[in-house]
Amino acid sequence: QRRTLSALNDSPVVAPLHMTKVPLFDTEIIGVYALRALSAAAFGPKHTDNGQYGRLFESGAEAGTQFVFVGGKGGVGKTSSSSALGVRLAEQGLKTLLISTDPAHSLGDCLAMPLTGEPREVEGTEGRLFAMEVDTEEALEEFKQKLRAVSSMKSKLGELAATIGLDEFADLLENPPPGVDEVVALGNVLEIAKERDFDRIVVDTAPTGHTLRLLSFPDFLDSFLRKVLAVKRKLDGAITAAKTLFGVANFASGDPARDDIEDAVAGLERQRDKAVALRALLTDADTTQFLVVTIPTALAAAESQRLIKGLGSRGVAVRNIIVNRVLSDEQATQAFLDRVKKGQDSSLGDIRRISTEVPLNARGDPPPVRVLEVPFFDTELRNAFALRVLSSVLFTKRSADVSA
């Protein structure tokens, strides 16, 4: 950890940022009361009174609505940090909305409450903190629906479909680009959030790659719309005949007053406009900032630096970095390790129980899920030699016998 922290401090990418080192806790951070302890460590006055967070913690209408996007490598504590920030802002008297756009939702687990696609008040925050988990699958279906009217014309036009380029739309319908679900969902949710008059909106994002795709999605939609319009121009010359002979117009909607390809174009243009507005929001340094979260490992630090570079090149303000799970000399005691192990033993018991009790979606009478416990290594596994050690734990005959 010391080596990684030293490398981060010396990095020209990270050095300009304010770094907050959050200690490793000997228990999981679940629920508002535990999150208060985390928020004190990560967002206490010594970290927030230096102006590095801009007007984020200011009360009063003059600061306007402020947005924070929290991101980083998977498994570094983004959701816990987002939740702790939301708790801290609520304690400052600011009406705050926490939004999770990560398809692997864990915000509800962190807050110890069920969440849906609608803002729900978090108990214990005096009505100032709300949270929601975006339904990314529903958002993806919304995007696909806008393509169906175009791609389904393929069966109506036969060989002509390939000539005018409809095959590409059919392929895109089946395999939309990664990150579409998050972009569409977030564009829709932010419109709702603004209408609800929140002072602060904290977005717990999906892992690093998704975040950068948020910023490039408007360009993709622009390119895609140009292709749709090119198809429409090719059809315009023969559209009347096509409608008469093949029933192209209105075959999806069933509404004689509508032309489905025009509806598709209009829908995609609206989605493009939302994506453009989202990118404008992300690059507005007066109202939006990106908080990078990492842990003191070389792999996480390297990805964090790539993320900071990528965001900076796209005009997104990054002023702060949170480094979670920092083990201090004072913590490195047997008593601390015993408490950590006690928590692990409890979770392992739950995993073993689940492995035998939860039904599997398999034919016949499937055996219980095998649980293989991999020890905690005191160094990162970063090359073939180190990975051989891990593979010997995971895949030797002895490991199979132990887990059976």
- Which residues form runs of ≥5 with pLDDT under 50? 251-258
Describe the oligomeric state of these chains in a short phrase. single chain
| Arrangement of strands in the largest sheet | 1-8-7-2-6-3-5-4
Helix content: 40-55%
Strand content: 5-15%
Shape: globular
Mean pLDDT equals: 80
Structural class: alpha/beta
Q: How far is the first residue's CA from the last residue's CA? A: 35 Å
For the largest beta-sheet, the strand count, sense and barrel status come to: 8 strands, mixed
Features:
11% strand; 404 residues; 8-stranded mixed β-sheet; single chain; alpha/beta; 8 strands
Give a description of the structure.
The structure is a single chain. This protein is of the alpha/beta class. It is built from 17 helices and eight strands. It has an eight-stranded mixed sheet, with helices on both faces. The two termini are 35 Å apart. 33% of the residues are buried.
